[in-house]
Amino acid sequence: MMMLKNFVDLDEIEKVLVFGWRNHLKIAPLMRTQTITLKEHLQFMESLKQDSTKQYFLALQDDEILGVLCFIDIQHGISCEFGIYQNPDLKGYGAALMEAMLKYAQETLGVVKIYACALNTNQKAISLYQRFGFQFTNKDAQMSYFVFSAGGGAIKATLLHFFSTQTTILATQDYSLLAYKIHKASKNVESQSLRAIPSPFLSLCA
Ligand SMILES: CC(C)(COP(=O)(O)OP(=O)(O)OC[C@H]1O[C@@H](n2cnc3c(N)ncnc32)[C@H](O)[C@@H]1OP(=O)(O)O)[C@@H](O)C(=O)NCCC(=O)NCCS
User: Fold this and answer.
1) How far is 55 from 63, CA to CA, in rounded Å?
2) What is the spatial distance between Cα 176 and Cα 13, in angstroms, rounded to a whole number?
3) Which residues contact 98 (CB under 8 A, 6 or more apart)?
4) Which residues form the N-acetyltransferase domain (predicted)?
5) Which residue among 124, 127, 128, 145 has the greatest number of ligand 1 atoms within 8 angstroms of its CB, and so is best to mutate?
6) What is the pLDDT of residues 128-180, one digit of tens each?
């Protein structure tokens, strides 16, 4: 079971550990601000005590620290942006960190929109975000921008109900979030029904 430990509660050893990760070669080049000094790091951690728009956490599982999750620009009940990095000694925990991030954002912060960005070259982060239903919104010379809309779950449940009753699929606005489920379920859907699917689905169902 994943536990989140707030940065404002870290001991001195944990603070220095995070400083080492933040400047690690596997992490720093992928951050907006690349290297930071220990003084800046400690000042930043201290500033979190007074800042209700930012929350940073260590993600722990079975006594192992899996990585860091952060939420910035928090507007409770409305939106936030998130960031993530994995303990550089580990591999393959991106999905577990994303699950913990979505749970906290939705259940504790109560947000309905979650924003994210990644360097255009950071293919691992971009495909991880998209696997979790984040939609690409924009791109500039350096960064790609994404948004997750929390309403998708309700639409998904409705559609799966239609599949299970073999009823014609209804159009929905949330194409990307549903694509995988539709692909899996499409084996049971008659071709007549497939024609009712909006065009972004058709290529994924083929
Ligand atoms: C983004 C991150 C959490 C993703 O974690 P993850 O999906 O579990 O993937 P890992 O980094 O553990 O990589 C595991 C393997 O997945 C494979 N992989 C997964 N998705 C891939 C993709 N889209 N393209 C290429 N390889 C991919 C690779 O083979 C990789 O092995 P390698 O590093 O030896 O090449 C993690 O890479 C990370 O912390 N990166 C640094 C910080 C960062 O980029 N944060 C996001 C932007 S702020």
Assistant:
1) 21
2) 42
3) 84, 128, 129, 131, 132
4) 5-151
5) 124
6) 999 999 999 999 999 999 999 986 544 443 444 444 443 334 334 444 334 33
